[in-house]
Amino acid sequence: MSSITIRNLDDAVKQNLRVRAALHGRSMEEEARTILRDAVEQDAPSSAALLQRIRNRFVALGDVDLPQPPREPMREPPELPTDPAA
Questions:
Q1: What's residue 27's pLDDT?
Q2: Would you say 30 and 44 are in contact if contact means Cβ atoms under 8 Å apart?
Q3: What is the pLDDT of residues 24-44, one digit of tens each?
């Protein structure tokens, strides 16, 4: 786990953090971790949002049907030597 130090934190912010932590039944440290975790997760775009942005970018082009290459049967795996000295 990593740790950080926050310097020059306003006294009012620290007091509000202490009150908020008490309301949630957590330590100030755990409350700060929760706040940071929630803030970072909200900012992270979901993969569904990324997919929608890609679709929106190309929707004007219309549907594109690409040919599927034919599948070939799987090859047989190579034979490994059975002699440990080989």
A1: 95
A2: no
A3: 999 999 999 999 998 888 766
Distances (CA, A) of 70 to 14, 24, 66, 73, 85: 64, 59, 12, 10, 42
- Taking the C-alpha atoms of residue 22 and residue 29, their distance in angstroms, rounded to an integer, is 11
Alpha-carbon Rg for the chain, nearest whole angstrom, is: 28
Judge whether 57 and 48 are in contact, CB under 8 Å: no
Is residue 28 within 8 A of residue 20, CB to CB? The reply is no
| Tokens encoding 13 | 């912010």
Contact 28, 18 (CB under 8 A): yes
Residue 62's contacts (CB-CB under 8 Å, 6 or more residues apart) are none
